[in-house]
Amino acid sequence: MNPKDLGTKAANTWCPGCGNFAILNAIKPVIAELDEEGLVPVENVVLVSGIGCHAKIVDYVNANSFYTIHGRTIPVATGIKLANPDLTVICFAGDGDAYAEGLDHLIFAAKRNVDITTIIHDNRVYGLTTGQYTPTSPSGFKGRSTPAGLEVPPINPLEIVFASGGTFIARGYSHGIELLKDVFREAILHRGFSFVDVLQVCATFFNLYEYYNERVYALEEHDPQDAARAEEKMREWDYNSDGSIPLGIFYKKEDATFGDNFVKYRSKISDLEGAIKKTMEGYI
Ligand SMILES: Cc1ncc(C[n+]2csc(CCOP(=O)(O)OP(=O)(O)O)c2C)c(N)n1
Ligand SMILES: [Mg+2]
Hints:
Layout: H1 20-36, E1 45-49, E2 64-67, H2 73-83, E3 88-94, H3 95-101, H4 103-112, E4 117-122, H5 157-164, E5 168-173, H6 178-189, E6 194-199, H7 209-215, E7 216-218, H8 227-235, E8 245-252, H9 258-283
Parallel strand pairs: 1-2, 1-3, 3-4, 4-6, 5-6, 7-8
Antiparallel strand pairs: 5-8
Helix pairs in contact: 1-6, 3-4, 4-5
This protein binds thiamine diphosphate and magnesium ion.
């Protein structure tokens, strides 16, 4: 399959220079390649998005998709995966979507190890609603809702997902698509909850290209199974500092998924139902 076959006729309304183009141009060849290799047939792919500039990505990829409401990308994706475990479910969420209104869902998906891939378009701003701060906006950020400069420090989403039990944690950057492609491919193939925070520049409301270009580097000779080292790397840049910004796969671990545990629970509960019925029969 040619990535061009995954294009649609929908008019693209992202601003010139938007980092979402890189995510779109990275995900299409990955989906095409996985289909070509027989690893993930495209008809089994479901894309799920929230509400925001990022969410429009599902209009631009010719695959099954579901537009959810703001902040509810992950629970809808979880339901789809539980209902049909044969599907490969990929979420596209914004930083507002996943770290503000939907943060509880992110934590629980990581805790439960739901077998879905979550790609966060982390532009560190509410793009669609024209420039309010989000949980990853740095201190001092001046936007629509904080014209005098934000006084609250940002969260580090990688550490939150790690602390919650996430089994695949990565960071990408929307300048250049090769690293994004590698990370997306590994994330989709990982069995369990895959989390990719993409530093996706909003050219209109928070243009960080220069800032990132001076600081990003790709993780090399890093063992993603080394949890202590992974955490150290996640802390190297805390979203508010001037430190170097590592990109790539920080952490990876094989573990039972929510689906595995759900099946286990179902069989235990049916045994229990039998026992309860027997006890009740004694009373009737
Ligand atoms: C339930 C609900 N809450 C709030 C909104 C308003 N709203 C729409 S998009 C958005 C923020 C989008 O920011 P983000 O998720 O970071 O996406 P981006 O536009 O930056 O890609 C908000 C608050 C809404 N549509 N629905
Ligand atoms: Mg955003």
